[in-house]
Amino acid sequence: MTIDATNVKPTVAPTVPGNSDASRDVASYLHPYTNLVTHEKTGPHIITGGHGIYVTDDYGRDLIEGMAGLWCTSLGFDEKRLVDAATKQLNTLPYYHTFASKSTNPAIDLAEKLLEIVPVPMSKVFFANSGSEATDSAVKMVWYYHNAIGQPEKKKIISRKKGYHGVTVASASMTGLPGNHKLFDLPIDRILHTETPHYWREAQPGEEEEDFATRLAEQLEDLIQAEGPETVGAFIAEPIMGAGGVLVPPRTYFEKIQEVLKRYDVLFIADEVICGFGRTGRMFATETFRLKPDMITIAKQLSSAYQPISALFINDKIYQAVKKGSDEIGVFGHGFTYSGHPVAAAVALETIKVYEDDGIIDHVRDVMSPFQKRLKALNKFEHIGETRGRGLIGAFELVADKCAKTPFEPYGAAGKAVAAICLEHGVILRALGDTVAFCPPLIITEEQIHDMFDKVEAALTEWHSSL
Ligand SMILES: Cc1ncc(COP(=O)(O)O)c(C=O)c1O
């Protein structure tokens, strides 16, 4: 079945000439993750304010932010405690760096707090500003570590097809999506991709979920053996794959993958940039999926996105080697001007306190069951092939033929069309190809969950009848 992509209504009226905000945007701003030709025709969708789980656009519409922005505004759009924490820190010390042993109290307090709540033994926390910088720092740490311990060959990093780890040169290379590689001359060498753990789409006919997990672990082992275990330094994985389509690992997957990593002395990096801080019903998905990573990356819900900040946890084995290496060459030559920025650190610390004081993780556990039930109920629609999710993250995948799992053509047009109709019904969702994702603020109430799904069902009914 073919979708007419030209039928998709633009988000807003086409750009009007003159001095409107829309035309000024088109004239001056290069938008990330945007089709630049389409953007010149449709113009931007301008968001002007926010409260609770809602954002307001320049048409004055209140929209449910069903994606918490980009999987990040966990506490919604008007958490006063975070505004106050930022204001207080701006009035005290708006900036100082942490190079060459300088420090600030917010950076110290946050590092200490993170080590207190992380569920596996970790030794130190390194701060950066974005998820990409955190995963990029993890790559450099893998290389530095193996040089420092006298294994300079052990540098290759394995990630997964459809994995998402960011857009800087090394992190985009680990990202397993063609749109992040084409025309950019990526991936760089030493980055490899293994199979996607998507049971519904990738399993062989008749293959049980646990057998599928076994096969993927065997494929990883085959890849390590083919490359030479002495050349493979690390494996990186999101506990639940986000941007690749909200893919929840099949039962026993991580158990089996971790056995392989252990067998070949391959470091494990858990990329918790989306899953960290309550998304799966626990503070870290490392607990949800019983992971034993050597490094963990976090960002997004670390500060509820009120300030850009990310972090990389490293365990003591890595820290001791990095410490020795830095002494031999005189410096640990890595860090950003804004590493441990005091305002961002103060906001992140306050965010974690709000999670604790307001029982946000317990709240997620209460509301995730109605959320998952309503998500699953979308299977009744003729063109929804699969619904999937965990905690307060989920998605549905649109297909032309449910039984044969045949995709629509062209791929991505159906997802775009459905997300656009959902917007007209008052809900912002994100189309990832023909998968439409939900990742609402963690503060969403049960009543708001029902309201969001009622609107999405109305949108899906309208879209089905238009086919
Ligand atoms: C799992 C994961 N890692 C890394 C990143 C990159 O984060 P950023 O966009 O802050 O660079 C993302 C962004 O969505 C992500 O989902």
With strands numbered from the N-terminus, the spatial order across the biggest sheet is: 4-10-9-8-7-5-6
User: What quaternary form is this?
Assistant: single chain
Shape: globular
The portion of residues forming beta strands comes to 5-15%
The biggest beta sheet, please?
7 strands, mixed
Work out the number of β strands.
15
- Average predicted local confidence, pLDDT: 96
Low-confidence stretches: 5-16
Bound ligands, each once: pyridoxal-5'-phosphate
Number of helical segments with 4 or more residues: 16
Straight-line distance between termini:
9 Å
Could you tell me the radius of gyration in angstroms?
22 Å
- What is the percent of helical residues? 40-55%
Which secondary-structure class do the elements indicate? alpha/beta
